[in-house]
Design a protein that fits this description.
179 residues, 0% strand, mainly alpha
């Protein structure tokens, strides 16, 4: 027996897809913000010539782990969306990971390997810039996701309304034919 008060299938499906994508994007944003905080704490430790001390290396490693986690979350979105109503999210998500997240991690790796404070500072600035760009990219993806969800739900409501109008018109024709 069907429940007349149950949510429409499309609404349930869209909601589940939206939620799965949103959870991953939120996880990526959280990891990126934490990585940025780690890098902010790393900045004063990078100004000395020579290799970084163990504290600075640990700080850089924590940031690197967070960047890797953020990138993995975004790449999950890329794998999740093909064949769904949110397929359009995939390419920009992949582009954010490729063009900003991976370079942020690479810049951080180079900052650890570089002995010169000027070069190290430049790599740290690059990492922060790419993190900022990654955050902006993910926030844009979340906005797109919200717009797509709303548009899909609205289209489904319109389809349901059209179906009801068609049913009412058929009943009216049937009633008129009986008279």
């Amino acid at each position: 027996e069907l429940d007349p008060n149950a949510a429409p299938f499309v609404d349930t499906q869209v909601g589940a897809q939206d939620s799965g994508i949103r959870v991953r994007l939120d996880a990526a944003l959280s990891a990126l913000r934490q990585a940025d905080a780690q890098i902010v704490e790393l900045v004063p430790l990078t100004g000395r010539p020579g290799p970084l001390d163990s504290r600075a290396k640990d700080q850089a490693e924590r940031a690197r782990v967070l960047l890797t986690r953020a990138e993995a979350s975004v790449r999950e979105v890329v794998k999740l969306v093909p064949g769904t109503t949110f397929e359009a999210i995939g390419p920009p998500a992949g582009e954010t990971a490729d063009r900003h997240m991976a370079p942020a991690r690479t810049a951080l790796d180079l900052a650890v390997l570089t002995d010169g404070p000027v070069e190290r500072a430049a790599q740290v600035r690059t990492a922060r810039l790419e993190i900022d760009r990654s955050i902006a990219g993910i926030e844009a993806l979340k906005e797109t996701l919200g717009r797509l969800s709303a548009a899909i739900r609205e289209a489904e409501k319109m389809r349901e309304l059209a179906d009801r109008e068609r049913d009412l018109a058929a009943r009216a024709r049937a009633d008129n034919a009986k008279q």
